Structures are given as C-alpha cells and as structure tokens.
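Sequence in, structure out.
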Amino acid sequence: MTRRESYAKRTFNKGFRGIGNWDKEGKIRASDITYKTILSKSAEIFALKGYEKASMREIAGAAGVSLAAPYYYFKNKETILFQIQKRGFEYLVQNLKSVVASDKSSREKIRIFVESHVRYFLNNRNEMKVIIHEYDVLSKEYQDQIFQIKTEYTHLAEDILKDYLQERGIEGCNSLYAIMALFGMMNWLYTWFRPRKKGNLEMEELIDVILNIFFDGIHHWETGKTPMS
C-alpha cells in the first residue's frame, strides 16, 4: 500500500465508520451497489493482471469511485479477493442446497447441478478465473474459510451422486473420484468455451455433452464393466 493509499484509508474510515453500516469485521452491507461494483471490477482486474499486480488505485478507478472509497467497504485488497471467492461459492452452495431439498429424481438433480455450475462460471468468467487461480495467495485464515465452503459444495454434489448410484444399484464406482472428475470437466470451460452465436443454444449443447460423458461413464459400472475393460 502506498503512502497516499494509506492516508486515504485512514481518512475515509475515520469519517464514515460512524454511519452504522459496518459490521463487526468492518465490512459494509453486501446489498450496497457500490460494494458490488467494487467486487465486480476487482474480479475483472484480478483476472486480467493477477492479484499481486493489481492496485487499489486501479480498482477504485475502474469502479468509478475515489481512491479512499474501497477502504470504506473492505479492509484491504486481500479482503476483496476473499469476498469474491466467498460470495461465488456461497451462491453455488445455496443453489445446490435447494436442489438437494427438492423432490426431483437424483438424475435430474445431477442435471440441474451441472447446469447451474456451468452457467454460473461461464456467466462470471472473471470471478471463475480468480477462484481457480488466486486461492493460494489468500492468508491461511481466509483459505480455511473458502476450503470449508468448497468442501460443503463438493459433499452436497457427491451426496446426490451417491443417491443416484444406490438407486441404480451401481457398485464399485468411487463417488468422490467421479464427482471430482465432473468438476474437472466444468471448471476449466472458461479457458476455451466461446459461443459463436448469441443465446443459450451452444451452452445447452455443451451441458448435454458433459452430462452424456458423465452418465455414460457411470453406467459402465451398472453393466459390471469399467470404462477401460
């Protein structure tokens, strides 16, 4: 942090901490439009330049706010990075919890899970790149919190798959390995998938391909044969 940025942070915080929007961690209410704009523009800059090379000055400029303003909403640059990752995974977890609680079939739940995951990451490419590439720069405290949310998300997805395997009487398929392989197909789509046309047709086709590959592989165990046998 430069001397000017440090001064801006002290000055802004001193003037505005008393307005009642801060919680115990010094963060503003997440419903604030400026808060969301700073997060969005930060993700854009982090994705383009990398977290280490990005500055609070650039973030403020991209968000159209004063240099001091980001410090009103976040303690520092790392807190911004943490919130980008936290909000992304929390959104996915809440969506998946609603799917798990529904009365849909386990196969349909897997389809909705894949569709939700793919759509979120392709519609939020900057956030996706930051989530994938910038986890290691977080402090251990923040890493532990993100890891906990990621683990919950993985377990929710795996539980749906376990139900599906049980319903089909499929044995011998490692549910964790299978669900992690599915994540592997989905998490790197942002690096190469570029729809040629407007609309959702190509994304729908992509989702169908992923699901067909996944279910076809799973069903080899149903016949008593592994995919490589």
